[in-house]
Amino acid sequence: MKVCTLIALLAFALPVIPAAASECPALLQHELPKLRSKERVDLCQAFQGKALVVVNTASHCGYTPQFKGLEALYQRYRDDGLEVLGVPSDDFFQESDDEAETAEVCYVNYGVTFTMTQTQPVRGRDATPLFRQLAEQAGQAPRWNFYKYVVDRKGRVIAHFSSKVKPDDPALVAAVEKALQPE
């Protein structure tokens, strides 16, 4: 009996070591500059423990109207823990060189309230580390603008979608709902 009591007392006296699940996943261990700001987005701080849709965007693309659907998706699920991260890219030669114009398209023309970064490379050797890791996990780099990656709360890519898949597509919505499930 004394041994059991001693073990129980020791269990309460030992320091609590945080579980590995509370550590920031490798995918989010990056910072990116915010669009039209001197601030940087610490991805761990902003998105750890949340479901995330990461999308490479462009202001002068036939898919640019998807900003409206991405914003609607964000508004629909943000209270459940969804975040959307838009990353403008000129890898497909359809993004403005003028950051003010990019911001106007996102914020004024489409009313985007989710996080947007400054223009970043998303393909090949020059791709930002976030997109290299997304491509590695998904087995696919963006093929065009508005390529979408759905990341679960543990920082794992669980689905990816081509530019043709709209933000309200049932398959994308199902992936988001799966990503939002508790760990």
Task: Give structural notes.
The chain has 183 residues and is α/β, with parallel strands linked by helices. The chain has one domain: Glutaredoxin, CATH 3.40.30. The chain is 33% helix and 17% strand.
Topology:
Layout: H1 2-13, E1 31-33, E2 40-42, H2 43-47, E3 51-57, H3 66-77, E4 82-88, H4 99-109, E5 115-116, H5 129-138, E6 148-151, E7 157-161, H6 170-179
Parallel strand pairs: 3-4, 4-5
Antiparallel strand pairs: 1-2, 3-6, 6-7
Strand content: 15-25%
Low-confidence stretches: 3-21
**Per CATH, what is the topology?**
Glutaredoxin
Compute the number of strand runs.
Answer: 7
The order of strands across the largest sheet is: 5-4-3-6-7
User: In whole angstroms, how far apart are the ends?
Assistant: 37 Å
Structural class: alpha/beta
- Oligomeric state, counting identical vs distinct chains: single chain
What is the overall silhouette? globular
Number of helices: 6
Name of the level-1 CATH class: Alpha Beta
Please summarize what this structure is.
The protein has 183 residues and is an alpha/beta fold. The chain has helices at 2-13, 43-47, 66-77, 99-109, 129-138, 170-179; strands at 31-33, 40-42, 51-57, 82-88, 115-116, 148-151, 157-161. A five-stranded mixed β-sheet has the order 5-4-3-6-7, sandwiched between helices. Strands 1-2 form a two-stranded antiparallel ribbon.
